[in-house]
Amino acid sequence: MPAPGELTFVAPRGAAKPPRHLADLAPTERREAVTALGEKPFRAKQLSQHYFARYAHRPAEWTDIPAAARERLGSALLPDLMSVVRHISCDQDTTRKTLWRLHDGTMVESVLMRYPERVTMCISSQAGCGMNCPFCATGQAGLDRNLSTAEIVHQIVDAQRALRDGEVPGGPARLSNVVFMGMGEPLANYNRVLGAIRRLTDPAPDGMGMSQRGITVSTVGLVPAMWRFADEGLSARLAVSLHAPDDELRDTLVPVNTRWKVREVLDAAWAYAEQSGRRVSIEYALIRDVNDQPWRGDLLGKLLRGKRAHVNLIPLNPTPGSQWTASRPEDEREFVRALEAHRVPVTVRDTRGQEIDGACGQLAATER
């Protein structure tokens, strides 16, 4: 296995650092932080229980903690990180997109999608994105900064509270799936994303107790980080945003391909599949007359044939003023047939959220 290397994408200088939050800290670090404030170490477990299990981040709700200690603990370990600018909904309010304003004024988005058999949350890991994919609203906006672990986690905590309190139609529920497919390239914010996965899946009260198998992390193909991710011992799913099976086109659609080619990306993906025991999801946005030709479907099928992979075809959600648009239905069907001819599992993604600026980055762009 090649050395994983270290890959970093630096946010613009002067980006304000988010305040320290309970969710940024591992359990031992929380006990140390509480002790440094003059409190007994067990207060860390109480705070964790309130935040990760009860979704109660206001000191007035912590009735098992002395009133004199609540404000001190709250201001030091549960500061306000982000606030809701607005929610917009569709699908009888079962799809809800949230625009967040972070502590420094930066905007990010998340989407909650309730289906009859599951509830899925699509979350952001960066404000903006530095990958510069030309058909992506977030990529065209550029990178503002990485999100902290706590800023990532809080999107989930807020969704769990909303589901518990009946804010989403269908009665009380819990999240079953979390996908890192919102704003940003998750593996370009590696340590904080990994920290968020730990907080989401650590048993209560140290974390939220979610199953790793319900978490999907996407990447455009940051190969060193993919090899590193394969060594973490996780059972989360990896999703590779491929969008083209040939290097000539992918160099244009996914500019990072000029650094790591399709074969290198897929080799790293197969390593993750081997280590995790999970199928890799191959994400492929179908773009009219660009990447939806049957011969490209055939080439993709040849690359994936016999591999532990599933293709998720995504009808492109066009952004205002963009030259890119969704494939014709007949071209989509031909592409599916080309993959099925190689016995490659394939599904076409449900196009939820188009009427609420569903493409990631569209809603934030309206506030810039």
From TrEMBL:
Amino-acid positions noted as binding S-adenosyl-L-methionine in the UniProt annotation, renumbered to this chain: G184, E185, S218, S241, L242, H243, N317
Molecular function (Gene Ontology), one example: rRNA binding
Enzyme Commission code: 2.1.1.192
One annotated Gene Ontology cellular component of this protein: cytoplasm
Subcellular location: Cytoplasm
Catalytic activity: adenosine(37) in tRNA + 2 reduced [2Fe-2S]-[ferredoxin] + 2 S-adenosyl-L-methionine = 2-methyladenosine(37) in tRNA + 5'-deoxyadenosine + L-methionine + 2 oxidized [2Fe-2S]-[ferredoxin] + S-adenosyl-L-homocysteine; adenosine(2503) in 23S rRNA + 2 reduced [2Fe-2S]-[ferredoxin] + 2 S-adenosyl-L-methionine = 2-methyladenosine(2503) in 23S rRNA + 5'-deoxyadenosine + L-methionine + 2 oxidized [2Fe-2S]-[ferredoxin] + S-adenosyl-L-homocysteine
Gene3D superfamilies per the UniProt record, alphabetical: 1.10.150.530, Aldolase class I
GO terms (BP aspect): rRNA base methylation; tRNA methylation
Binding site for [4Fe-4S] cluster: C129, C133, C136
UniProt-listed SUPFAM superfamilies: Radical SAM enzymes (SSF102114)
InterPro entries the record matches: Aldolase_TIM (IPR013785), Methyltransferase_A (IPR040072), RNA_MTrfase_RlmN (IPR027492), rRNA_lsu_MTrfase_RlmN/Cfr (IPR004383), rSAM (IPR007197), rSAM_sf (IPR058240)
Record has Methyltransferase as a keyword: yes
PROSITE patterns assigned to the protein according to its UniProt record, in alphabetical order: RADICAL_SAM
Main subcellular location of this protein, as a coarse class: cytoplasm
Keyword terms: 4Fe-4S, Cytoplasm, Disulfide bond, Iron, Iron-sulfur, Metal-binding, Methyltransferase, rRNA processing, S-adenosyl-L-methionine, Transferase, tRNA processing
Cofactor: how bound: Binds 1 [4Fe-4S] cluster. The cluster is coordinated with 3 cysteines and an exchangeable S-adenosyl-L-methionine.
Extra facts: Reaction proceeds by a ping-pong mechanism involving intermediate methylation of a conserved cysteine residue.
Classification via NCBIfam families: rRNA_mod_RlmN
Functional description taken from the UniProt entry: Specifically methylates position 2 of adenine 2503 in 23S rRNA and position 2 of adenine 37 in tRNAs.
Recorded family membership: Belongs to the radical SAM superfamily. RlmN family.
Protein name per Swiss-Prot or TrEMBL: Probable dual-specificity RNA methyltransferase RlmN
Organism expressing this protein natively: Streptomyces oceani
Gene name as annotated: rlmN
